[in-house]
Design brief:
The protein is mainly β. The chain has three helices and twelve strands. The chain has a six-stranded antiparallel β-barrel with strand order 1-2-5-4-3-6. Strands 7-8-11-10-9-12 form a six-stranded antiparallel β-barrel. The two termini are about 30 Å apart.
Length: about 200
């Protein structure tokens, strides 16, 4: 379980195809406090630490994870938003995040709005019932508030604002049109949608 509050931006040092894809990720974390078998959110995907060194940890990314996430996160040199798993008693600064990516979305456009940047994003239409204005959403592991939502043909467009602090401390400050993003909708919305679908049958 996570909160969507990024605590480090890591970099993929190497990517090696084995049975699964083995990534070695550089980090500023104190690795003495990271357990083998522990979970770290890597740009929104919950991955298990399988090895570690002084300034790096390794994860295995399964074919299933690769098929459901933005592929350019899992290549050498890629920057990743990192968050360690929530511990009992930690401050819940964002919202409850599972680290299970629901869909890959795409940046439509960006524009300056005061000191912030407004990002308009296109997501699969299937997510439309679970994205609401003023609701929470996770973009590449970052907890954000949805500002507006509207349907656009076979997609759903929504907008979020990236404040300067978020832009400087995550990868979201570098977004451009066409960039793919890992999206996780709010877990409560996911369960409510499932309940409504079950009642309809």
């Amino acid at each position: 379980m996570f909160t969507g509050i990024v605590t480090d931006v890591g970099r993929v040092r190497s990517a090696e195809q084995r049975g699964d894809l083995r990534l070695v990720i550089e980090t500023g974390y104190d690795l003495d406090s990271v357990d083998l078998g522990g979970s770290i959110s890597c740009s929104g995907a919950c991955l298990t630490v399988v090895d570690k060194g002084e300034d790096w940890f390794a994860v295995d990314v399964s074919a299933e994870t690769i098929s459901k996430t933005a592929g350019d996160r899992w290549v050498e040199g890629a920057k990743l938003n990192l968050e360690r798993a929530l511990r009992l008693g930690d401050e819940l600064g964002g919202h409850i995040v599972t680290g299970h990516v629901d869909a890959v979305a795409e940046v439509v456009d960006t524009c300056a709005e005061g000191d912030s940047t407004r990002i308009r994003i296109s997501a699969p239409k299937a997510l439309a019932p679970m994205i609401a204005p003023k609701g929470s959403i996770t973009i590449d592991g970052v907890s954000l508030t949805v500002n507006e939502v509207h349907d656009a043909g076979d997609a759903t467009h929504f907008a979020v604002n990236i404040i300067p602090h978020t832009a400087h401390h995550t990868t979201l400050g570098d977004l451009t049109s066409g960039k793919q993003l890992n999206v996780e909708i709010d877990v409560l919305a996911r369960y409510l949608d499932r309940m409504m679908a079950a009642r309809a049958h």
